[in-house]
Specification:
With 90 residues, this protein is mainly α. The chain is 69% helix and 8% strand.
Length: 90
């Protein structure tokens, strides 16, 4: 895979995007970046983190109905994924 990415990058000389990067092993992402991938889509990973955070908020605040008291759990969960990916992609 890595060799093919490098070949495509060299042939096209344009930014390359990895669609469906969510769930891809960190080492594979590092290799893809080294081979020439410039953009990695992780939307599903962010959505899953949001969902898990929301579920956590609902389970910890079982009687709460005010969104701004439940949603911070989802926001923090997404932030954790973003921090992790920014470190990986840097």
């Amino acid at each position: 895979m890595v060799q093919r990415i490098a070949q495509i990058k060299n042939a096209t000389q344009v930014p390359l995007t990895l669609h469906g990067g969510s769930g891809t092993d960190d080492e594979d992402l590092r290799k893809a970046i080294a081979a020439g991938i410039n953009i990695i889509h992780i939307n599903t990973e962010l959505r899953v983190a949001w969902r898990h955070g929301l579920e956590e908020g609902l389970s910890k605040q079982t009687n709460e109905v005010v969104p701004y008291k439940i949603l911070p759990f989802a926001v923090e969960s997404v932030k954790e994924v973003v921090r992790s990916r920014l470190k990986l992609f840097a």
